[in-house]
Amino acid sequence: MIRKLTENDRAALMELLLTEPALNLFIIGDVENFGFEQDFMELWGDIDPASGIIQAGLLRFYDSYLPFAGGPFEEKALAEIITQDPKFSMLSGPADIVHKISRSISFRKEKQLHFAELKNISKPLLEAVSSGAPIRKATVDEVEAVCRLTDQITEFESNRESSRKSLKKTLESGTGRTYYLEHEGQVIATASTTAENSRSAMVIGVATHPDYRQQGLATRLAAQLCADVLNEGKSLCLFYDNPKAGVIYKRLGFQDIGNWAMMYT
């Protein structure tokens, strides 16, 4: 049985989501930050009629949809909810769940990424943060300086205005943090988290200026960032599709836990 979820379903929903806090971090964060009564956000649950347990469901955040599941679910029913939305533009989530729903929807493009998680501080991670130039934590005053660096990173797909708005909003709301290193007043390396919630956070935006690469700067920043978040009792996760980046993250203790699919209409 599929129905809209309300505040009365919070405990049951969280019970399911927290079985996989890394894979479900976006939904956990959105529920913690926005609740259930927002125009830009809706939640549906696939509920077992016999037990009343939420076994799967779907989040709408603006024009994007993100499914979650703890077992078998009504794939076609969730797909029908999505296709009834004329503004629908993207379906993303754990690849196995997304691909089941996508059987009933036509998509123009698919992108798939590796999904990795870090739960404990490793020895290599501690060694990476042991020495070096002072690491700084960005405030909204450093948004422009940080974005001047990320503007130069060809792998990052965002425009100048949106990247600045996004970083500013994240820092103001406390749903993420950004660490950086500078040289002669210029930001030369950075690493950030986003979608932080009470149980998990996602590492994003790990970058080094082209003139300062091969010095381990981004690795050191990512290690410090991860150590601080882990010390707060949270787990970390990240996406990657670059094998070289995957090797670096695995040295810090990240382990692959699945694939993440993004389907575009």
TrEMBL record:
Every N-acetyltransferase domain range: 133-265
MF terms (GO), sorted A to Z: acyltransferase activity, transferring groups other than amino-acyl groups
InterPro entries for this protein: Acyl_CoA_acyltransferase, GNAT_acetyltra_YdfB-like, GNAT_dom
Pfam family, one: GNAT_acetyltran
Name of the protein in its database record: N-acetyltransferase
Organism from which the protein derives: Paenibacillus albidus
